[in-house]
Amino acid sequence: MRDTRDAGRSLTAWWMMTLATMASGCCFGGAAEPIMTEPVAPMPPATPPPPPTPPEVLASQRASLVVEACVNRFGSEAREVRSRYLSVVSETGPHGDEDLDRVESYFFAFPDAAVPACRAAHDRMLASPNASAELDAASTSYVTTLETLAPLVVEARTYYERETFLDDGGAGASALHPRLTAALDAFLLASDQLHLVVSRLERAALDLRLAELAADPARRGEYLVERAIGMANAMISLADALEVEPVDDGYRIVASDAAAFDAAVDAYQQAADEMIAAPESATIDTGGSYRSYARELVAEAIELRRAVETGRVFPAGEAGAAIRRVMNKYNQVVDAYNRTRR
Asked: Which residue stretches of the chain have pLDDT < 70?
C-alpha cells in the first residue's frame, strides 16, 4: 500500500530542488534569466491601542443622557409652581377666602409636555453600559415622582382655568391641595438628589480632564474652554436650587446658601473672562458662539446674584423668569460648547 504522506514529502522536496536550481541560474534547458525582485518596505510599527476610558468619564457620559431632558428641565419650574401657588393658598389648604382667580396662571410654567422626553432619556440611560446603582436609583426616583406630579399640575391648571371652584364651592381645590403639594415636595426632593449625584459625577470627570489638559501647554485653549463649562455647571446647580418666596408686595429670590452661590458666580465669571480673552480659545471656538453665550451668561448670573443679595422684590411671575433666563442662557452655552467638540 502506498504511503501518501511520503508522496507528499517527495512532492515538496521536488519543488524545493526546482526552486534552488532556478535561483542558481540553471534550468532544464539552459541558463535562466535572473529573477528581479522589488525591495520590500519594512512593516510600519503597530499602532498601540488607545488607553481605556477612565471610569469617571464613563460615569459622566452616562449621566449626560438625562441632564438636558430631565435635570435641567423641571426643577426650577416646579419650585416656581410651588412657591406661587402657596403664596395664595395656605400650606394647610384653601379656606374659602383666597383670591383663587390668581392661581390659574401659576401652573403654566411647568412643562408637562416634556415629561415623555425625560422618560425616554432615562430609559436610554438605564439600557446603556457602565451602570451606576446610585445614579440609576436617583434618576428612577426623579422620573417616577415627575410622572406623578405632571398630571396633578394639569388637573390643577384645568380646574383653576375653568374656575370650577365657583361651581363646587372650592371642594375640588380642597381635595386637590394635599395631593398636589405632596407630589411637588416629593419631586423636588428627588430633583435635588439627582442634581447632587450628577454634579458629583461631572465634577470628577472634569477634574480628570483639566489635570490632563493643564499638563500640556499646547492645549491651553481646550483647558480654558473646559474649565469655563465646569464652573458654569457648578454655578447652575446652585441657581436651580434658588427659591421664590412671597413677600408683602411681591416675590423675592432666596438662596439656601447665598455665600456658596456668590462664590460660584465669581468662579464662573473669572473662568469665562479668562477664556474669552485668551487667543488660544479662538482655535477651539472657531465660530465664537461659545464665548458670546458665555459672556451673556456671566451678565445674567451677576444680575441674578444681585437680586438675591439685595432682596429685590419682583412682581408676580418675574422672579421665576429671572431664574429661567439664567437656565436658558446656560443651555445655550452648553449647546455651543457641544459644537466645539464635534
From this structure: 1-43, 45, 342
